[in-house]
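Translate structure to sequence.
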């Protein structure tokens, strides 16, 4: 049995980046700080309501703009454009109609995928739905057609609630369902058996906290108090804190560079520890 903490090891509880070749940017960035990172996928996704999504995408005149808060929602749009006819129609006219409206996104990863669809994104530097909602409220009138928000089954209500309170119309459609990755517990057990407890565990979503924390606690045993716990942003940090986890660091922005810098800094501090 492996004993003790693997000093430079970082466990990333996140999904791989879609459509990216080469190493995950978080693994790559942590390596520049001298840390060996391992990625274990936490979630599995199932797309739903794609026919309804397709209908709405091809009627841009009925909406005031688009809102994307996750890469997975953009992937659902991409699936609607697979058919050659649909793609041609999108490229010839529909895309430009959407580009004449506002297309809002949270974060660089989502913005990059939206750009791949030929759409011009606003809000790339907003790291959370809360900040994005403020940008939308600043820019939009209450008399516009509803903004269209394709989203996941466990989205937080921050953005819809904020827009509703200011009278900005929003239409949501669940386009993917989120569940625990079927191999999550097995993969975590294998990691701890082969590599020991990591120096740092990084969480990337409240769902990740929900599905992983109990297993991580159990596998870490008495090494838990020596480990650091990192959050990719304030929403995830709040979920960790709510579970009694002492968060060692939170990335200033949800990027590989910011999280790696925060983890490197935290690892220079004495352990924060954790309640059982």
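Result:
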């Amino acid at each position: 049995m492996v004993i003790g903490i693997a000093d430079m090891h970082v466990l990333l509880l996140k999904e791989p980046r879609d459509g990216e070749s080469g190493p995950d940017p978080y693994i790559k960035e942590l390596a520049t700080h001298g840390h060996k990172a391992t990625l274990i996928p936490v979630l599995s996704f199932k797309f739903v309501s794609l026919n309804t999504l397709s209908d709405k995408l091809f009627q841009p005149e009925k909406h005031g703009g688009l809102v994307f808060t996750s890469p997975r929602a953009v992937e659902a749009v991409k699936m609607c454009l697979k058919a050659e006819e649909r793609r041609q129609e999108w490229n010839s006219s529909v895309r430009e109609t959407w580009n004449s409206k506002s297309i809002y996104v949270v974060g660089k990863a989502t913005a990059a995928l939206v750009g791949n669809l030929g759409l011009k994104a606003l809000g790339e530097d907003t790291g959370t739905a809360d900040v994005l909602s403020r940008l939308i409220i600043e820019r939009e009138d209450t008399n516009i057609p509803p903004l269209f928000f394709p989203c996941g089954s466990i989205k937080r209500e921050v953005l819809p609630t904020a827009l509703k309170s200011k009278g900005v119309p929003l239409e949501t459609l669940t386009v993917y369902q989120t569940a625990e990755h079927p191999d999550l517990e097995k993969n975590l057990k294998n990691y701890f058996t082969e590599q020991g407890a990591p120096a740092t565990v990084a969480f990337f979503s409240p769902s990740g906290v929900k599905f992983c924390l109990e297993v991580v606690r159990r596998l870490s045993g008495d090494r838990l108090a020596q480990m650091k716990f990192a959050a990719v942003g304030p929403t995830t940090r709040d979920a960790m804190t709510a579970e009694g986890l002492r968060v060692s660091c939170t990335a200033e922005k949800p990027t590989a560079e910011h999280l790696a810098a925060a983890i490197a800094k935290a690892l220079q501090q004495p352990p924060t520890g954790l309640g059982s």
